Amino acid sequence: MIARFPRPAPAHYPWILIGLLWMVSFLNSADRAILNAVKPLLRDAFAITDVQLGLVDTVFFWTYAVCAFMFGRIGDSVRRRNMVLFGLLFWSMATGFMPIATGFAMLLGMRTLVAVGESTYYPTATALISSWHRPAMRSRALAIHQTAVFAGGGIGSWAAGALADAHGWSMPFIVFALLGGVVFGLLIFTLRDDA
Question: Are 119 and 68 a contacting pair, CB within 8 Å?
Fold first, then answer.
């Protein structure tokens, strides 16, 4: 995932970076929101209980919390660009594979993989933004980036529900995985490492 950028970054690149990472952050939250939108359909498809569905969320968030700490440490010792790209590709693929689940155990396992992938993003992205933005603009840049969390959660839930109503519970996972692939392709050519 190493890219060579022969020319220096343009002066406005720090704000381009915010736009690029905003898309990644949006997908990070949107992919997380899919499950809540399709829970009624999953309950029927797999004959699982509300307690089991709650366990899926619990395991997701505990996995995310533990792995975020681990990947935060790793993110300080590798190229941050590559960590963002790896995480996006990993969680998008894990999201896309969710439809192969045939029961509760597979659903729990696949969702845990999504949590592992998503946990790579925020510690690394925050450090990358801080590297490109001088202190006088850093809080503004981080605040703009943070809006993607709420946009992704809100729009992602709505879009996942609409897709699931029209095409079944698996469609939102496939669509959002494909969107992750598109954003990954864009970032390969545009995302730079630390300033």
Answer: yes
Say how many residues make up the chain.
Answer: 195
CA distance 132 to 39: 40
Nearest to 159 by CA among 8, 26, 66, 12: 26
pLDDT tens for residues 117-175? 999 999 999 999 999 999 999 999 999 999 999 999 999 999 999 999 999 999 999 99
In angstroms, rounded to a whole number, what is the distance separating the alpha carbons of residues 161 and 10? 40
CA 43 → CA 33, 47, 103, 112, distances in Å?
16, 5, 10, 18
What dihedral do alpha carbons 154, 157, 163, 165 form, nearest 10°?
Answer: -120
Tokens (6 digits) for 67 = 């792995």
Interatomic CA distance for residues 152 and 159, integer angstroms: 10
pTM of the model: 0.91
